[in-house]
Amino acid sequence: MSITATTKKLDAVTLLDSKWRLRDNLLKGYFSNSIDALSFYEFSARIAQLPLIGRPYKKVLNLYYRYIHTNSLVFPLKDIEEIIKSAAHIYVDPCTCRLAAGEKACNAPLFVCMRINRAAEIRKMQEDSEGLSKDDALAVMRNARKYNLVFSLESCIQPYQYQICACCSDCCVAMRMRYRYGLDAYQSGPYLPEFGPKDCKQCSACIDKCPVHALSVVGGKPVVDLKTCFGCGICAEICPKNSIEMVMNEDRLRKDEEPGAIRLFISVMFIYLMMFPAFAAHRLITGSRMNRLKTAAPIQSDLYHEGMQKRKMA
Questions:
Q1: Which pLDDT band, with edges at 50, 70 and 90, does 12 fall under?
Q2: Full-model pTM
């Protein structure tokens, strides 16, 4: 079984992309069922909290999130910009988590699910579209940051990344997987904030803006909770004194390799024999919400508009 991979090395991430046919089919299936899939993931997370059955079920879910799908890895905006600049294909979809939240969703931009490389190529073929230019994609992500959204890379068959997520603590299912349910679904990135105490005026801007409340002041000095912080870089970006710098921590740097034939086989068997039947049963019982994707339109906070992502002319 051969895998075609394109590797692009950055300071903190190695992008791997695959045109493996089975992975293509998994992505196509996910895009066609994304909202229902998120509903199923959160239902699974609640099952993992139950006594007796919860512990083994949680271990199975952690393996799934670690090696197959929805394993988000957080990066500061500067790295996300480099990823966009290096991408061969870009396509933007509405945020699946906000669509799943429905009326409970926050007012952050909706069109921020940035498909990259092979995933974007698939979406462009599905929608007969030219996709998004790099300049427009950068503008969308910078606008998203104004609303305190956290950027992460997501993988389908680890470590093949397929999209950049723009998440908030209100709507993001993957973030709830980690902070509410204790699952390994939303990984910290390789950066940590370092403080310049001589310049810090204790204005609390970073504390107020931290999406996961990982910052505090102890003894007159800013302190970061290493277990909670996921290295998004928002604190460094909004510090009025520029006294915070995001520094790579090698202990937090992921060093994933392309999966071998045995791991691929196990992953695929797990998806088809366990995840798919369970998902189908859940959707049959709860009903589908995929109509929300078909009717989604940009909201007031969106920078995205239809002219950005042109459809091909017949």
A1: low
A2: 0.89
